[in-house]
Amino acid sequence: MKTQSEGARPREENPELYTVARGSGQLDPVVKDIARLAAQAVIDQKGGRVVVLDVSGRTSYCDVLVLTTGSQARHVQAIADAVVKAYKQGRNERPLGVEGTASGRWVLVDLGDVIVHAFDGPMRGYYDLDGLWVDARVVPFSELDLEAPGPDEAGDDDAWPEDDEG
Predict the structure, then answer these.
(1) Residues 6 or more apart whose Cβ sits within 8 Å of residue 122
(2) How far does Cα 6 stand from its chain's mean position?
(3) What is the reported pLDDT for 24?
(4) E strands within the chain?
(5) What is the pLDDT of residue 164?
């Protein structure tokens, strides 16, 4: 790469080199199907604070993130297991990887273009992926042909730590 003294143009003169392509707002049908499978599995397992984020064009490793909170380690593991099972049954494929099942505090399920993060409350607050991807589009459940979980179905909201620190 050329340095500025060797003739490289600064960012202002060559913005296309620094611009990240943004997603069109429409998910690829295959990605949408995988996101639907994953989100439904999370909802069925009573995952709390389920958020589906469209990060296409913002990262090279996936197009969609599904974030959820479990009430305890076993719940986090059960959510991840349900996602893996739904993916195997729905797509007849195995996930690319599953990490974190031993501790159950944060389990990542890699479904290729869709990555599911299941956290316990303190870990979700600590890593704050919701805040990290604040500029990503939140995919409405209706776009995935899913019903949003009601308050009785949304899992344990107490799993989300309140900001008591002052």
Answers:
(1) 105, 161
(2) 42
(3) 53
(4) 48-54, 64-70, 97-99, 106-110, 114-120, 137-138
(5) 39
Residue 57 zone, left/alpha/beta (φ > 0; ψ -120 to 50; rest):
left
Token pair 């607050």 in the structure block, residue: 125
Return the pLDDT at 22: 45
What is the amino acid identity at position 89?
Answer: Q
Which pLDDT score, from 0 to 100, does residue 108 have? 97
Distance of CA 74 to the CA centre of its chain: 20
- What is the predicted pLDDT for the residue at 149? 80
Alpha helices in the chain (DSSP H): 29-44, 73-91, 121-127, 129-132
Distance CA 47, CA 52 (A): 12
Question: Which parts of the chain register pLDDT below 70?
Answer: 1-24, 151-166
Coil, helix or strand for 70?
strand
Rounded Cα–Cα distance for residues 58 and 42 (Å): 24
Contact 124, 69 (CB under 8 A): yes
